[in-house]
Amino acid sequence: MNLTIGAVILAAGEGKRLKLNAPKPLAPCLDKKLIDFPIRELKKFFSQNHLQGKMTAVIGHQKEMVQSYIEKNYGDIAFALQEKQLGTADALRSYFNSSNETLNYDYTLVICADTPVVSFNELTSMMTLLQNENLDAVAATFKVENPTGYGRIIRGNLGFHIIEEKDATEEERKITEVNSGLYIFKTAYVHQHLKSIDSNNKSNEFYLTDVFKIGFNVKAQCFLNSELFLGVNTLKQLEAVEFALRERKKNELRDAGVRFIDSQHCYIDSEVEVGEGSVIYPNTYITGQSKIGKNVVIEMGAQISHSIVEDNAKVLAYTILESAHLRLKATAGPFARLRPGADIGAEAKIGNFVEIKKSVLDKGVKVSHLSYVGDAFIGEETNIGCGFITCNFDGAHKHITRIGKNCFIGSDSQTIAPVEIGDDCFVASSSTITKSMPSGSFAISRTAQVTKEQMAHRFIKKK
Ligand code: UD1
Ligand code: CA
Q: Which atom of ligand 1 is the closest one to the Cα of 114?
């Protein structure tokens, strides 16, 4: 029998303390938004456990912005509107009121939009406990040295209950086991008990935590790693959460055979892939959907975003790759900049102070020093001398430069696009190429040298 789950993401709160110009679910977190994390983990949880079901976001504060972000990025998430933020129980009521379908799922899972470190592993482990012991509900809890702000867990022989900070006595406040806000319920159970929840408490809120009681068939599952449930209410907590997510990523990569020289100072986004045997130096940023192959070297100061670096390639110090592709055994840097659309062929070499934009360089091409290559195609094994420029822009339009294979382009040359140079061509140093060259041709375009003996003194100025 396939189990079904309705997963509810609580995202109606305001998040005032973040002082960001955005609703809390859309606060930046690594290269994503806070809300992307629970959504991604829920998707993994569903697929790995072969669960059927649906995700619903409860929205309220700045709902249009939150909804349009989710709709733009995910096709399959429903919305429930909570008009006023009257508390977490009220938020779940809004969910059940949003559609009759919500009652059909065997289980109802509740997760907050602002706890991005929780992973599908915890969800799976809660689900297993719930099923193995045929419980009505499981809440994830953890222990902290300073429990301020959290609901405290009061355990009975059977069941438990949660007392919120504001309503707790001096003694109860000393309890260090706290509520994470993550729950899985049997749908019938939570729907039934929601009905009787009132707001007779210090906050005058409807507390979802009141569905747990001592004597009920419910369990608090205490997780040892409290970092998992870090919530984001302040910018300091946001930084802590990003730190934790990056650490987790680096640990995964290290376990998979990636060597860090000093991982403390590497910033790697959660979707980045890095192959076994690769070495990453300090002060590096690897972001977006970047894919780094095996045995790649990424030296200090490198910034790689949304790029592909194939096996055995080298990204040398202070090199920037933005939506670029560095193929097998190619080298870029030090101090190179590969801009969007730079596609560097296998074994090619891009040297210092070279900028490449929207250009395809075939296997073995060398552009070793101080050059700009834009909107160009360069054939296999062509060698581009120092200080070469594709003049690709006429002030209004960009034009294409084609250079064939096995060419030698002398230093300090320019090509005025559109222009085409065939295979096996030779461009003499300091030439400006304005006309296309057939394969095998030689071109030179510089004025002949004039040398006048004994004349230098006329030009050398002395004080
Ligand atoms: C809640 C728990 C507390 C737990 C803590 C963990 C209750 C009563 N208390 O407290 O036991 O230790 O989380 O972080 O649930 N939200 C809505 N609508 C509302 C109120 C909240 O959607 O009317 C959303 C918020 O956007 C947030 C989540 O629910 O994502 C939790 O709400 P929050 O106000 O942060 O609850 P806490 O007071 O922290
Ligand atoms: Ca909270």
A: 30
The structure tokens listed for 34 are: 């806070």
Distances (CA, A) of 428 to 384, 390, 412: 11, 15, 9
Once rounded to an integer, what is the mean pLDDT over residues 4-14?
94
Residue 316 exposed, middle or buried by CB count within 10 Å (0-12, 13-18, 19+) = buried
C-beta atoms surrounding 395 within 10 Å: 4
Q: 379: which residues sit within 8 A by CB, 6+ positions away?
A: 362, 365, 403, 404, 405, 406, 407, 423
Q: Report which DSSP code applies to 228.
A: G
Our answer on whether the CB atom of 407 is closer than 6 Å to any ligand 1 atom is no
| Residue 355 β-bridge partners | 337, 372
What whole-number distance in Å separates Cα of residue 341 and Cα of residue 323? 6
- Nearest C-alpha to atom 31 of ligand 1 is from which residue? 112
Q: Does residue 82 line the site of ligand 1, with CB under 6 A?
A: yes
140 lines ligand 1 (CB under 6 A): no
Global pTM reads 0.86
* SS3 state of residue 82: coil
pLDDT digits (tens, 9 = 90+) for 264-275: 999 999 899 999
User: What does each C-alpha distance from 347 to 145, 354, 365 come to in angstroms?
Assistant: 54, 16, 8
Q: How confident is the model at residue 292 (pLDDT cuts 50, 70, 90)?
A: very high
> Can you tell me the distance from the alpha carbon of 271 to that of 287, in angstroms, rounded to the nearest whole number?
8
Is residue 147 within 8 A of residue 173, CB to CB? The reply is: yes
Atom nearest to 90 CA in ligand 1: 23
Cβ neighbours of residue 29 closer than 8 Å, sequence gap 6 or more = 36, 37, 116, 232, 238, 241, 242, 245
Helix axes 36-48, 120-132, angle to 10 degrees: 50
Query: What is each CA distance from 121 to 42, 43, 46, in whole angstroms?
Result: 10, 12, 11
**What is d(CA 289, CA 295) in angstroms, rounded to the nearest whole number?**
19
Structural domains of the chain in order of their starting residue, each with its CATH number: 4-235 (3.90.550.10), 257-443 (2.160.10.10)
Segment 64-74 mean pLDDT: 97
Q: How far apart are CA 135 and CA 190, in angstroms?
A: 12
Distance from first CA to last CA of the chain, Å, rounded? 96
